[in-house]
Amino acid sequence: MNIFLPYGIPRKTSEKMPFWPRMVATMFGAGFCPVAPGTMGALVAIVLWLPLALIPYYGLVMMVMLACIMPTILLGYNASEVAELYWGEDPKCVVVDETLGQWIALLPMTLFCNGPESYHDWKFWLIIGLAFVLFRFFDIVKPLGIRKMESYEGGFGILMDDMLAGIYSMVLITPLAMYLFVS
Predict the structure, then answer these.
(1) 54, exposed or middle or buried, with CB in 10 Å at 0-12, 13-18, 19+?
(2) Which residue spans within 15-132 are E strands per DSSP?
(3) How far apart are CA 77 and CA 18, in angstroms?
(4) What is the distance, to the nearest Å, from the Cα of residue 12 to the centroid of all Cα atoms in its chain?
(5) How far, in Å, CA of 93 to CA of 85, rounded?
(6) Which among 22, 128, 131, 142 could bridge 105 via Cys, Cβ 3.0 to 4.6 Å?
(7) pLDDT band at 41 (very low <50, low <70, confident <90, very high)
(8) For the CA atoms of the chain, what is the radius of gyration?
(9) CA-wise closest residue to 77 among 148, 23, 154
(10) Res. 10: pLDDT tops 70
């Protein structure tokens, strides 16, 4: 059962999509950006993530990130399913998947948050920028099985390609972040 469709499938596609699934699917409207909506969804993820860097306890930052990622998977899946009913298959304005994938790419940085001092460290900004660029690269080019994830139907297919792009980005970023921050 879809939590955003308590009364079932819309009777006609000209109906306006309900407010909450529209807000989740478009990440509060970022998906309606006329130029590069996917990039806007990834930037929303970074903007929402940056305040976490102010927390000087990396364990707490990791728990907050996971507490954001897990419900976003469920809500994003449901909102994407509803969006496809109203707007067709894999609509461009659905960017919750980009936000989710970018958060996954940023997971290694949760280990290196050092409170407000993080903002003054060039390595911090380098890794965040690299996480953004790598995630967008994997999301756009779709190598290494990412394109295959799009073949799944509905919300699952919408989310999975970006989650895999985030995982690939995270795998590449982690050793560099460890080298820069630990050595």
Answers:
(1) middle
(2) none
(3) 15
(4) 30
(5) 13
(6) 131
(7) very high
(8) 17
(9) 154
(10) no
The two three-digit tokens of residue 77, written as one number: 């899946």
Residues shown for the chain: 183
Q: What is the pLDDT of residues 145-161, one digit of tens each?
A: 888 988 888 888 899 99
Token pair recorded at residue 59: 């364990």
Query: CA 18, 28, 139 angle in degrees (round to 5)?
Result: 110
Partners of 116 in the beta sheet?
Answer: 114
DSSP line for 58-86: HHHHHHHHHHHHHHHHHHHHHHHHHHHHH
Chain position carrying tokens 């990130």:
65
d(CA 88, CA 67): 30
pLDDT exceeds cutoff 90 at 183: no
Amino acid letter, 2: N
Q: Which amino acid is at 40?
A: M
Which residue matches tokens 């469709």? 5
pLDDT at 20 over 90: yes
Alpha carbon distance, N-terminus to C-terminus of the chain: 49
CA distance readout (Å), 112 to 49, 107, 132, 135: 13, 10, 17, 19
